[in-house]
Amino acid sequence: LFATLGMMIMAGGAELITVFLGVELMSVSLYVLAGYARTRMISNESSLKYFLLGSFASGFLLYGIALLYGSTGTTNIQAISKVLSTNGLQSPALVIGMALLVVGFGFKAALAPFHMWTPDVYEGAPAPITAFMSAGPKAAAFAAFARVFYEALPTLQGEWTAVIWAMAALTMSVGNVIALVQENIKRMLAYSSIAHAGYVLVAFLAAGELGISSILYYMLAYTFMNIGAFALITVLGGKGEERVRVRDYRGLGYRHPWAAIAMSL
Fold it and tell me: Rounded to an integer, what distance in angstroms lies between the CA atom of residue 113 and that of residue 241?
């Protein structure tokens, strides 16, 4: 519930500080959830890795907000846009602040090259928690990302479009190619979720009303499909999650035909 509240604050915040508080509330809750199976070492490792890398990402995000505040004199999203459109600021501090925000949001949305935590954390966390982490936080991160960049930094679109374009291409390529060689199904789905983040970035680049509606529509479909896949892994894997290898799903159509159909979908 705290994680969900954090996501709501993050997506709906009109102030960069409020967005950051939402990010932190969500992140701290997820660090606890990732290590929820305290008796399993892999779960503890997952939580610790997520905490350490997440702390660095939060630092990048906060420094980015600080530089934006230093350049414009405000942390209000609408006010930043107004200052930039009136004064046409193009200071190096502003561009660096924007780049740091990309890093911070890139980590939260699992975009390449800030995706390295994702497979380890998804593998170690309990399957229901992984389902939650793969859907909710990603949707919230994109909502906040789009809100800040579309509403606060539209005058800098020329600068951030090239960066986002490169990240989209890299994210799609890395996610899909590395997913092919995974033996653990949770790691495979982790890389799949990275690839999906790359597809959403393409809609992000489109900007405008069509871009925003595309992001929302895609995230809705992605959320239900991803939660469905992890729900099946939870059911088929059992309490101890014994069946997490891709080869464990061989012949599933004979043993559990309905589950196989749902997994295919």
Answer: 29
CB neighbours of residue 188 within 10 Å: 21
Nearest-angstrom CA–CA distance, 243 and 259: 14
Length of the chain: 265
- Interval 194-251: pLDDT, tens: 999 999 999 888 877 788 888 889 988 988 898 888 888 888 876 666 677 888 888 8
| DSSP one-letter string for 180-198 | TT-SBHHHHHHHHHHHHHH
HEC profile of 142-176: HHHHHHHHHHHCHHHHHHHHHHHHHHHHHHHHHHH
pTM: predicted TM-score of the whole model, two decimal places: 0.85
184: left (phi over 0), alpha (psi -120 to 50) or beta: beta
Ordered DSSP codes for the chain? -HHHHHHHHHHH-SBHHHHHHHHHHHHHHHHHHHT--TT-HHHHHHHHHHHHHHHHHHHHHHHHHHHHHHHHS--BHHHHHHHHHHH----HHHHHHHHHHHHHHHHHTT-TTS-THHHHHHHHS-HHHHHHHHHHHHHHHHHHHHHIIIII-GGGHHHHHHHHHHHHHHHHHHHHHHHTT-SBHHHHHHHHHHHHHHHHHHHHHH-HHHHHHHHHHHHHHHHHHHHHHHHHHHHHHTTTT---BGGGGTTHHHH-HHHHHHHH-
